Structure formats: structure tokens, C-alpha cells
Amino acid sequence: MKKSCFLVLVLISFLFVKPISAKTLGAQEISVILNTHSENQLRFRRDFSQKELELTGDFEQLRPLGSDWAFELTSQGNSVSCVLSEDQAMEFVETGRGTNIFLTGKIQTVRKNDSNNSKPILELDQCRIRLLSRNQVASIPIEGRWKGCNVRIGKKKYNGKSCSLYVTIRKQSDGYAISDLKRSDGRPIEVVAADFAGSALPEWSTKTLQTGVITSYNCQFEETNQNSFICEWEEPKREGTINFQRIR
């Protein structure tokens, strides 16, 4: 009888603990993932194992991992590793430390960091990795309201009249910040990261709250054009080009 009551209580506790939904996770959630693994590995497996993670970070090292290779990087102060075959790893044999990386992968486990035993490393597999170029950073007056219009989505090209994103950038005491962000279809959206460099925004990312999809932007600025900049964007299953025009 006692055993039956215990099983009922366990079942009820699982019903009332809401698991993490199957949405794409971002770099800002890595600390929670690592803490969950250290506190309760069963909850880690339920909430995070095999979930999609998308982030940008800085390349650290390629290390042997059995017959495979560990592609290691840091993102928001956390260590992340992607398991690659040797053929996959050879694509990055010339990659230097500090190179900016965009990747998506499936969360696999957490292991000890060989270079820092006190700091865990989040291990991913099925990774898609892209090196982000060092953009030209121009000194342009970026403060104001910008309208983003499609130039390309996948292989389909647009005339730049289909505008889907509106961004307001404000100057603050410590630099710049995105103060307002809106999609033309009305879906709620938020800024995940915005890395300003001088008076430009070479790399930033957004998250659509209804779907959890994170979009990463890699932008180019030109000093000769003060009222426009262009960004290549990427999501887990699609990518494209968007042109931003100043509207005020």
C-alpha cells in the first residue's frame, strides 16, 4: 500500500512540473542548462536533452575526442563543444582562436572542461557551424528608426519593397541600444543580443516569442551610405538578406 501511494505521488509531481517546450534555445539559456545538469540530471534529460540550441560565440580550439573532434567555443562566458567527425573538423583546420562563430546543434550532455576543471562544458552534436566574417565597421549616425525590407529569402529574390522589420536605435551613456523592435506581421519579438561596435551594429540576434525561433544578423556598413545598411540573416531552417533604410 505504501509503495502504491509513493508511485502515485511521484506521478502527480511529474504531471505538475511543466517541462521545457521543444523550442529553439539560445545562448542566454546555457547557464540554466548547466545548472540543471549539476543539480538534477534526470530533469536535464527531460527538459534539455536533444533540444535545439542556437548561438554565436568565439572559437577556442579543436581537440581530439576519441575518434572524433571537439569544436570548442565560448558564448556569453560559457564553454560549448560540438562533436565533429575528422572530415568535418578539417573544414576548420585554419580557424584561429577568437574567430566569431554562428552555430546550431542538439544538446547532448555536460562534461568536464579539460582546460578548466572547475568550469563545465556543454556538449552538442548534429552541429551546423558558420564562420562569421569580420565586418567593415563604419562610423555612421546609427541612432534613429530603421525599416528592414527583404532583398532575398533563400534562393528567391525580392525587390526590397516587402518590409518585415522595424528597429529603433537610441544612444545611451554607455553606447547604443535597440529600444524598440517590431515585426510587420504583429508577432511579438525581442532582442537576444546586440553587439555594437563604434557607431555600427555588425552582429545581433532576435527571438520570435511565439515560435522561439532565433534569427542571427551579420551586417555590413559603408561610410558612403549614411542611410542604409544590409544584413545577411540566418535561422535554423532558412536564411536571406535584408536591407535597412533610415525612416527617421
* CATH level 1 name of the largest domain: Mainly Beta
Gross CATH architecture of the largest domain: Beta Barrel
Task: Give the proportion of residues in helices.
Answer: 10-25%
The 3D shape can be described as globular
How much of the sequence lies in strands comes to over 45%
Separation, N- and C-terminal Cα atoms: 72 Å
Q: Which regions have little confidence, pLDDT < 50, spanning 5+ residues?
A: 1-22
Radius of gyration: 21 Å
Number of strands: 15
Number of domains: 2
Helix segment tally: 4
**Which fold does the CATH topology of the largest domain refer to?**
OB fold (Dihydrolipoamide Acetyltransferase, E2P)
The CATH superfamily of the largest domain is identified as: Nucleic acid-binding proteins
Mean pLDDT equals 84
Specify the biggest β-sheet: 9 strands, antiparallel
Helix and strand content put the structural class at mainly beta
SSE string, helices as H and strands as E: HEHHEEEHEEEEEEEEEEE
